[in-house]
Specification:
alpha+beta, 21% strand, elongated, single chain
């Protein structure tokens, strides 16, 4: 089995092949994101702590976090699954994936160094092999975290710039647009949006109050109209009754 070991601190990675089954037993039945001590790989890795980040089996199927088996299975995938891209709207498909538990069927196991040991590993953790970060962080809080800034400090002053050099032309530098940066303009815009929302709410509330008053007035007018109509009918009926009574009395 091959072990693909990555060092986030230096940006390097190294692949080693392990044939001894005794050394690999420490990784068997472990799940992704679990930690393994590096002493089992030999004195060179003494004091190191690895984190299992993934792997592939001999046919190339990747390990998937959350599938608690140590073999291959077929899952019905839909939009949003990280190992499937639908081609049509609402399309689902059954795909073969490998569970997140390490077994002997794997051909490559991916590891990340969480803790560096006593000795440097050539090509992985030594300073000579370290690769400088080509791009710096983009989010404002991540820039503050990298340079240990406070909330009052401006991250625009310490952003990582990438130099661009061209033959025969003027050199310049590029920097990413900082995301989630809170500036006075941003605060003013938020206050403006809040005031607009409140104005819309007050306008809607006033319109609803005016509408309810109009509806109540119309209902009152309708009740009065019906009441006057009923009184007219009663008066007319009373007059007709009196007229009939007089006619009967005259005939008698």
């Amino acid at each position: 089995m091959k072990l693909n070991i990555a060092c986030p601190a230096t940006g390097c990675q190294k692949t080693i092949e392990i044939e001894d089954e005794k050394q690999l037993r420490a990784f068997y039945d472990k799940r992704m994101s679990q930690e393994v001590e590096g002493d089992v790989l030999g004195d060179e890795w003494k004091g190191y702590i690895f984190k299992i980040t993934g792997g592939n089996d001999k046919q190339g199927f990747p390990m998937v976090q959350g599938v608690l088996i140590n073999n291959r299975t077929r899952l019905l995938c839909k939009k949003g699954s990280k190992y499937y891209r639908p081609r049509k709207v609402g399309e689902r498909k059954r795909k073969s994936i490998r569970g997140c538990i390490v077994s002997h069927d794997l051909s490559v196991l991916n590891l990340a160094i969480l803790k560096k040991g006593d000795a440097d590993v050539e090509g992985l953790t030594d300073e000579k092999s370290a690769k400088p970060r080509r791009l710096g962080p983009k989010r404002a809080n991540n820039i503050r975290k990298l340079f240990n800034l406070s909330k009052e400090d401006d991250p625009r002053s310490v952003i990582v710039r990438r130099p661009i050099e061209r033959e025969g032309k003027k050199s310049y530098s590029k920097a990413p647009k900082i995301q989630r940066l809170i500036t006075p303009d941003r605060i003013q815009r938020k206050l403006k949006w809040k005031a607009e929302r409140r104005h819309r709410w007050e306008k809607s509330r006033a319109a609803a109050k005016e509408y309810n008053a109009l509806v109540a007035q119309r209902l009152k007018e309708e009740r009065e109209r019906r009441q006057s109509y009923k009184e007219k009918r009663r008066s007319l009926s009373r007059k007709m009754s009196e007229k009939k009574a007089k006619a009967k009395a005259g005939a008698a």
